[in-house]
Design a protein that fits this description.
It holds the Pfam family FHIPEP. By secondary structure, the chain is α/β, with parallel strands linked by helices. It contains 26 helices and 14 strands. It has four domains: about 270 residues, no CATH class; about 140 residues, Glutaredoxin, CATH 3.40.30; about 80 residues, FHIPEP family, domain 3 (Helicase, Ruva Protein, domain 3, Orthogonal Bundle); about 110 residues, Rossmann fold (3-Layer(aba) Sandwich). Helix 1 packs across helix 3 and helix 6 runs antiparallel to helix 7.
Length: about 700
Amino acid sequence: MKNLLKNSVVVFVITIVLLLIIPLPPFLLDVMIIINISLSMIILLITMNIKEPLEFSIFPALLLVTTLLRLGLNVSTTRNILSNQGSSGQVIRAFGDFVLQGNVVVGFIIFLIIVLVNFLVITKGTERVSEVAARFTLDAMPGKQMAIDADLSSGLINEQEAKIRRYKIQKEADFYGAMDGATKFVKGDAIISIIVTAINFIGGTIIGMVQSNMAFNQVLAVYSIATVGDGLVSQVPALLISTATGMIVTRAVSEGSLNEDVSAQFLAQPKAIMITGFVMIILMLVPGMPKLQLAIMAVALVAAGFRLEQKVKLAAVRNQEIAATAMMEESTQPAADEESYYRDVNNVYSLINVEPIEMEFGYSLIPLIDENSGGKMINRIVIFRRQYAQDMGFVIPSVRLRDSSSLNTNQYIIKIRGEEVARGEILVDYYLALEPPALSGEVDGIETVEPAYGIPSKWIRPENKEMAEIYGYTVIDPLSVMLTHLSETIRQHAYELLGRQEVMQLLENVRKHSAELVDELFPNQFTYSSFQKILNNLLKEGVPVKDMETILGTIVDSIPTTRDMDVITENIRIALKRTITRMFCDGGQMKVLTLDAELEKNIIGSMAKGEQGVYLALSPDVMQSVIGQLGEQIKKFSDLDQKPVILTSQVVRLYFYRLIEQFYPNVYVLSFNEIANNIQIQAVGNITI
């Protein structure tokens, strides 16, 4: 039955739209009017019977659907009244006869009173309450969030309960904003009902007297009944919906789609459905009402409500049995509190595990991460992991995501091996606009710096997004800002994430198609720890380790002459020259900075060997001069679509890289032997001694 109701909602809405176009015969029009009255009664009874607002969170969407239904019926009834000499079904005629009671003046007065009560009292009051509730709810959000933080700090609630309460507050604020706008549907519906009634009476009078040559008394009798009946048929459901709106104006919001919520929340109220069926039976006692249609609707509602109620009772009994069984099992087991749990030394080891990659964020960023709220962060991380594996040949570990009450609501931090390495702050309801080198115009926004690359930026409102793009800004959504920062941080620290287990997994993957090469090298000729160090050296400088066969083959060729890991790493870089060239080549050209020959001689002459290997012993003046020149020369790459590259001889490359990496970690140092022969090198600057 749930699947039937899910599909029927879509069909029902499409049918409502068709009512505005397709004429309906009186019999089907009576059925639709009865459905409209029944639906309005169900909504009203549900709003009166629910215990918490969250139980009927689809109400704002239902306001639009029910309003559209009444407008469609108004169009259909007006078409029949004006084209069939006041005949538009038994329901309208029964309502008109019942109210008029043979006196047109009294009937119209009663009808106007009902319309004015709905418009001036209920609708206007509901609209005002919605506006006040929306404003007060938004104003109270900071206080509620502070109360949650206070309860969390004092230990009254845990982080999971705090997360649920914050999520509920956010959703309530969204709901009240939706209700503030949805009440305008009710107001507009009341106004259009008055207009349609006037059109029916005036248009019917003109048609009856001019086209049908009817007498004025006859026209008055025919069209007054149809007009009053049509107005009442429209106003009674509108009155019920307006009353329901006033009751639920402070209710909460929905978490699912309209179809899912309708099927779940309507079927969870069998008593409301049964009571509506009994009301339909009472309406059969009204003289002139279509008893067949009412009887069918009444039987269907009562039967459906009774069947649903039996299912609800059966489910409640089963839940009680399950709970009783669980309590019995729990009572038979010894109670184990936290203190007794950690008496076992083995359980204490679970506290010292360190996550390879961890990301903590404030609660305002939860909607970006939580999949239940529509967050796509996890899917984007999966895509990045796949792309990084294809580019670099290394599969990054899983990223642990968790919220933290110690952070600012808009902040997040990234941890590698349990320690913070990056931090950022984003605004969920804004876009980040990266400033271009040459601005053609300014947009209003909050000044900031892009967290991944340090580019001057602005947080702008969504309505300013198109204008910012016209002015040349690069506009990025908040999720992409956070994911870019995470991905760049992972790229910079990938060598720290490559442990012994990851090395073994890489070798097992190579063993599937080159088992002889792996067996030849490990473990007799080369150790796993030495191989891990080589891979770490390559990843640290951004060199992909995807071509594992070339890497292993180069190691096999190098170990007869040297056991120095640095020398072997340099040989591997030369073997991977095509891969390295591709990373920095643009259209067959590579723009680089070069070192003066005298400077290279000075560097070679300052090499000294210590316990930790070879290092540079440059004088402070030379070192300061090199670092200062390098800072100025790197600025030339800001206008180029290429990463900063310094080209040196093979002897100098490694040591010059170690000299500048702490000052400029994003600058790449290559040797001439690592560049493919078919590449044209263009020097954009030179560093001298």
